[in-house]
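Open question from group meeting: does this chain pack into something compact, or does most of it stay loose? Before anyone orders reagents, we agreed to write out a predicted structure and look at it together. Recording both the input and the output here so the notebook holds the full record.
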Amino acid sequence: MKKNRIFYFFSIIPLLFIVGIFTLYISKKINSELFFSLFYGTIFSTFNFFLGTISIYFGFEKSNNIFLLVVFGGLVVRLLLMLILIVIALKFLFVTLYSFIFTNFIFYFYYLLIEIFILIHKKKLIIKTNND
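Structure tokens returned:
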């Protein structure tokens, strides 16, 4: 039950952000360019987070070498993917530069903290299982 509560706590901030900007957009408080800048920044970082979480869960039960290869290799691939997505968004989509980059930056580091939390939590579970 505690694990689910922590998951809900971490997922509430991005959901509130999306609902908040959607509400502001519907009520005409922000224009479409700003809305899509904030929305794309959040979506790109969330996609990056899901890829990172998949790589953590895939590599966690493997040997140390495979784990490091999957997690750090996946990190390099994810950073390149983020670079490509950011360049495409700035070049072809009509986004505000500063709000898009700032949103991407904030949510990237927020999700990075969650990934670290997941790694620590899974390590504690493995240690607890091995001691029993």
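Observations to bring back to the group:
The mean pLDDT is 86.
The chain has one domain: 2-123.
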